Amino acid sequence: xxxxxFQSQASMFCEKAxxxxxxxxxxxxxxxxxxxxxxxLIEYTGQRKVPSMDxxxxxxxxxxxxxxxxxxxxxxxxxxxxxxxxxxxxLALEDxxxxxxxxxxxxxxxxxxxxxxxKAEEEWAAHFNTLEQMYSGKKFIFDRMxxxxxxxxxxxxxxxxxxKYEIPANYKNVLAFMENMRQTLKLNSLSDSFxxxxx
Length: 199
Ligand SMILES: N[C@@H](CCC(=O)N[C@@H](CS)C(=O)NCC(=O)O)C(=O)O
Fold this sequence. Notes:
Number of strands: 4
Bound molecules: glutathione
Strand content: 5-15%
Helix content: 40-55%
Largest sheet: 4 strands, mixed
Radius of gyration: 17 Å
CATH topology of the largest domain: Glutathione S-transferase Yfyf (Class Pi), Chain A, domain 2
Shape: globular
């Protein structure tokens, strides 16, 4: 039995999953879904979304579910904070990032007119304001890097690498967070995406 991660390098949700795999130091094989136009993914999972995984014969879909399963089976280097109250908040922030920031990314990437682009930038400005406060005086939201930081980083990193949108200089805490994550994840530069390796 083995673990196969069906993924694409550019997907922010796949980057989120790759970081959790690396933190947990769990070996896995990568199936690049672009190589066969998602044929093997659809055959194995019956749907089109990545990340999905073949977990020793069990089909597991969605970055949040994958992260929770890896945490359960590999509890060392936890991706959640200690304590039920902090964990609940962490899960809510993971969900906010996955379900809200993703739309801001879709909107800015798909903006075809100056008006649509302006609206998308305003949407991001509102999120940057939220994040600026969230990371005020903090390296991570909780006392160590958790799935909330990883989920947020993955969306902001996509904004940087794929959308090619630079976070405005006035969001100092957000920029410091990105630099801190770059160092923690041992990326040479923020232009690099996180590849399969341990941390
Ligand atoms: N909530 C899911 C979102 C996954 C998702 O939207 N994946 C995108 C790539 S970033 C995808 O595979 N889209 C292909 C499709 O919908 O056909 C997760 O956290 O894994």
